[in-house]
Design brief:
Layout: E1 10-11, H1 23-35, E2 45-58, E3 71-84, E4 89-100, E5 113-122, E6 127-135, H2 158-161, E7 170-180, E8 186-200, E9 207-223, E10 229-242, E11 253-265, E12 269-282, E13 285-301, E14 304-318, E15 324-342, E16 345-356, E17 373-384
Length: about 375
Amino acid sequence: MFDSCNVRSATARKPRVLRPGWLPVTLLAIGLVATAWTPAMADKLTVHGYLSQAYADSSDGQVLGVPTDGTTDYRTMALQFRYAVTDKDSVVVQLSHETQGESPFDDLRDEIELDWAFYEHAFDAGTTLRVGRIPIAFGIYNELRDVGTLLEFYRPPTSIYFEGAFSNEAVDGLSLSHRFDWSWPLTVDVYYGGWQRYDSSAPITDVGVGEVDDAIGGQLWLETPVDGLRFGLAAQTWDLSGGLTRLRSGEEDPADVILASFELSRERWYIRGEWQEIATSILVAPNLDYTAWYAQAGVRFGSWGVNLLFENSDIEGTGGFAPVGIDPFYEDTVLGVTYSFSPSVVAKAEYHDIETGLFELDALAPELPEDRATELFIASLSVSF
């Protein structure tokens, strides 16, 4: 068994309380709104929400929380509240509920969790400041990963967006965003702060929560003159402590992340892809590289859509007693069909052919399935308002 704590870590949702440095700022902004509330202010409040409910079944072994006897305990939902204090200032709070079948990560989640809670100010020059718990600008899907009516599959590509893994959903800190309206428009985001991340082994036999502090990251999105064509580049650097400490190479393990994105989207079809590399460290491999990529395409026929996805990730580690490698770490070939009753009601059916080392084992299933492979079927209905 290879323990891949750092690479397999994910944004831990259960204990996600705002860090002391940013909590007073956000609560002050929310408190000022609450104490000054009048009926006339209701016009400044907007509420949005979404729900995705699924049935999922695995042919061999449990992966992504899906057992071999199937589960209907597979859903994500959220409510988002945005209050416009002024034309330039607003406060955003998002609450969520998520369950992923029999996933061990569900034990780390609360029934209702605080996803986002931040104050936002828009400057006249086109710069936006956010303070609090902020969705991170990271890749194509990070801010949309649970909004089922906007996704082609139940979840975005697992190798990069695994329930918050390999990337980070939100940062407790501050961010700045600026759009340059050039002939090729460029959007620049930078952020600083920290978060909590899931730790786990591979195969997944136990899980924990690590701490990330003093993280720095940013993203660039370049829009081209070609309709629907854009390119993105994101980077992060941070140190992870705590979690499954038996896997730490030291008191803190460093990580450097880079993500490149590409998307060409038209009215009736799209193609997109992303590539990511994480350079990090664990006890058995002081020099560990996690590499992941996916390619995705789809076509739309009125209310119907057909989508294809292939994703792959692998791990290579050196510097310990012996070289470490898992190839593939997670590989998935997916065929999906969507039907849109309306823009706010979407049904999906998808088939996954998976090979991975991320099976979730327990005393009743102590061995990996043959060839580390399984097939998943997921049927879901998503609504939003």
